[in-house]
Write a structure and sequence with these properties.
- With 364 residues, the protein is α+β, with helices and mostly antiparallel strands.
- It has a single domain, classed as DD-peptidase/beta-lactamase superfamily (Beta-lactamase, 3-Layer(aba) Sandwich).
- Strand 12 and strand 13 form a beta hairpin.
- The longest helix has 19 residues.
- The protein is globular, with a radius of gyration of 20 Å.
Length: 364
């Protein structure tokens, strides 16, 4: 317990207002929960950053970024795969395109990508962004493809398959929706998707440790420059942790191909609370749950829009990819941002992460 108290003392030394006893109890309990994940070998490493009222509230690394070399996780420097939190980044770029009149959310996808095979029903950009277009999800080993497909080339994976349902009548979460959106964005802007994201999202928000993992473009900061901070990626079976299978996520950058630090993802979330991203009118379309026959899907356009078990409203995303698991939760009423990154394929611990978040909010 001494190490925990020492950490907490150091954490809050530079802050203007010292936390009260209740806040400390909440953080201590959260610290114990997250430490238990390492002790019980449920995860190799984890980074968490919590912001409240625009200030750092809690930040810590647990376990290892590299198990073999015993390199510890640093929440400010260790770079993880953020998986589907990439959709939040892509949605922010799409919002810019909507604002600039380059893309109409309610226009047909075929207005931007006329060469995509025609389906029985037309579908819109909005339906793709809200997972209501009827596009199928992964089959077999598609989840972990290790082929250097471009976004356009990757259409060969699913372009000839029919829709699962008439667009707008059902909800089916998948990453291929965002492959199609990123292709439409490229066609509409005339520049590569990753370059548009860099110019409209990463640079303006000063996300200096957020990158497209498999991109090697002269116009994009090379990830190799930061390889020494890149976590090793793991999967887990009954025998323990093993290196995750190699995967190339370039073609699905928008759906799950970015890497970042816990600190950077929290900064990204805080930008939304600070209204630094775009006009609220534009963003409200993205941060409002879509509905089907009057029933909410609890998903906006690239954003989960829901409530936690205590009824507190949030928006953000849970992400699961090869060698990476992520949480980004933004609580507008509480003015809090939670960024949690793990270097392991789905470790089946979301309930523990939810409890950790609840402990901090309930005691803050």
């Amino acid at each position: 317990m001494k190490s925990v108290l020492t950490y907490l003392k150091n954490l809050f030394t530079a802050q203007k207002d010292k936390p009260d006893k209740t806040q400390l109890q909440g953080i201590e309990k959260t610290d114990e929960l997250l430490n238990s994940l390492i002790k019980e070998k449920k995860i190799p490493g984890l980074a968490i950053t919590v912001l409240k009222n625009k200030e750092l509230f809690f930040q810590k690394g647990y376990g290892y970024a590299d198990l073999k070399d015993k390199k510890k996780v640093n929440p400010k420097r260790t770079i993880f795969r953020v998986a589907s939190v990439s959709k939040n980044i892509a949605a922010t770029a799409l919002a810019h395109m909507v604002k600039d009149g380059l893309i109409d959310l309610d226009a047909s996808f075929y207005d931007y990508v006329p060469y995509f095979p025609k389906k029985k029903h037309d579908f819109t950009i909005r339906q793709l962004a809200g997972h209501m277009a009827g596009i199928r999800g992964y089959r077999g080993k598609e989840y972990g493809l290790n082929k250097a497909y471009s976004i356009k080339d990757s259409l060969r994976i699913f372009k000839d398959d029919g829709l699962l349902f008439k667009p707008g009548t059902n909800y089916h979460y998948n990453s291929y929706d965002w492959v199609l959106i990123s292709l439409a964005m490229q066609e509409a802007s005339g520049i590569p998707f990753e370059e548009y994201v860099r110019e409209k999202v990463l640079k303006p928000l000063d996300l200096q440790n957020t990158f497209p993992e498999n991109v090697r473009s002269s116009a994009v900061e090379p990830l190799e420059k930061y390889d020494h901070d890149l976590a090793k990626f793991y999967s887990k079976n009954r025998l323990g942790f093993r290196n995750a299978m190699p995967v190339n996520n370039y073609y699905k950058l928008a759906g799950g191909g970015y890497v970042s630090t816990s600190a950077d993802i929290a900064k990204f979330g805080q930008a939304y609370l600070n209204n630094e991203v775009l006009d609220k009118t534009v963003l409200s379309e993205f941060l409002t749950s879509e509905s089907i026959n009057g029933n909410p899907t609890y998903y906006g356009l690239g954003w989960q829009v829901s409530e936690d078990k205590k009824g507190r409203a949030f928006f953000g995303h849970v992400g699961n990819g090869v060698g990476g698991y992520s949480n980004l939760f933004i609580y507008p009423k509480e003015q809090m941002v939670f960024s949690i990154l793990i270097n392991c394929t789905n470790p089946q611990i979301q309930d523990i992460l939810d409890n950790s978040i609840d402990l901090i909010i309930s005691n803050s």
